[in-house]
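REQUEST FORM: STRUCTURE PREDICTION
Request ID: SP-0412
Submitted by: Lab K.M.
Chain count: 1
Length (residues): 518
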Amino acid sequence: MFIAYRPDQVYKNVGTRRQLFIDDDIVAVVKNVTRRMHAPEKHPSNPLIQRDKPWEVLPMFRGNTYGVQFDSQDSLYKCWYEDYYGAFSKPKSWNRDRVYYATSKDGIAWEKPALGKLEVDGRDTNACFSIPPYEWASCISVLQDPRESDPSRRYKVVYYKLSDAGKEPSDGTNGMSQNEVQGLGIAFSPDGVDWTPYDGNPIIPEWGGDVEVLTYDPLDEKYVLYGRYGGQSGSAHPDHDSWFAPVYPNVPAGMWGIRRRVYRLESEDCINWTDATLMFNPGPDDNVDDSYYCFVPWRAEEMHLGLLCVLHQVDNEMDIYLMHSRDGRDWNRFVTHRPFIPRGPAGSYDCVGVEMPIQPVEVGDELRFYYGGMSVPHDFWYLAEKQGLDLPEAHDPELVMNGHTLNLATLRRDGYVSFDAGIRDGYVETKPMFSASPGLFINGKCAQDGYIAVEVMDSWSNVWDGYSKGDCRPFSGDDVHHRATWSGGDTVNNIPGSIKLRFHLRNAELYGFQFAGA
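STATUS: Completed
RESULT:
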């Protein structure tokens, strides 16, 4: 669904939808302001989940090997994460993994409950999937389905479906062989613990990529799947390096698809899917060694937002970038190309990589970003022996086993991007709009001597009596939902026709606004 200002109409009917300033859709003119992206604040309790059980070998919080959801029915945060317990076997097997389960009452302190499904060395574990009698699965993406009427299918998980042979030890340094992969599978659960694989698996037999992100769009009322559909192109020749093929920046004929790319598919029922459409392909705005690893979208009112995970292959580091769109197909990266959650300093839990294949969790006026942090490179450690790389993590498996963690960063509601003014007075003027709601609410933050004031105009910039900048009671605090008031009152739906707003600000951040009743 495309919701945006249309030049062929006199005004935009904004209703009660919150209007963000990530793009220029509602913006007519600005003066003495800058647009600034805000990084979420990392939680002091990080890392929240890490390897701390004797049966865990290599718990992974990567794109995509984990998921976090808040279950309002159970009043519980739930996390699923994969443990690649065969990564250090002899020979190595990247394809031997289990899915573990953790819970939290507050989303900060997590527990790993014994589930009675699998014992390892005589100990009951928190394993819930990719263990007998379930299907062998890898690269999970969990969805708590808001539209599902069948309680037994309230949770869904899609995964890289592996044959039983795929669980046998093999030389995993060349990735998964095609006879091990059996397409994309799906399973259902009433609670996220007890799973039932779909009898018709695989739902996409030709699926060949090891990244898949399952979401549901509440406005379009469709399931949306993003992933590396079809795998990477390459060659069966024994001398071909399938992990690090040469890059052809100008994409000559026959050399397509060397770098990782992201595709999009849609479904009405989560079983039958459309053909894959290429959505993200590295290009002129990227470095020659950049690959697009995974992408997760979500709705911020009428806007489509998302996080694109990019692998910088030479340095073997991961970053995530904020993307925005009006229609969910034509995506733009924020102008500064700065990572949304920056990597930490050397030696920290996320100094080498930040990944996030899941949507943020909204808690009151706070957005929670549960992201994976890496303190070891993406694949240096895994290929070190084969490629002769002399690295600490190649000689000390503990560095790798403890090098992937679940972490949290938080952001104010709609706090992605703001228009900021400094010591000079600035303003942001909107295009004409209409709403039948009485109140105007501001999402803003002011410095000690800062302010935000708003005046109401007609479509020709004539200020309505009683609604000028001088009539407005200036806002000087920090609030995601502050009601604007004037000497003329605190309602705006008594003004006839469409209106424009002009926000005046100094030493302040303006994130957005909303027309609402309360």
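NOTES: Confidence is low (pLDDT under 50) at residues 165-174.
Reviewed by: T.R.
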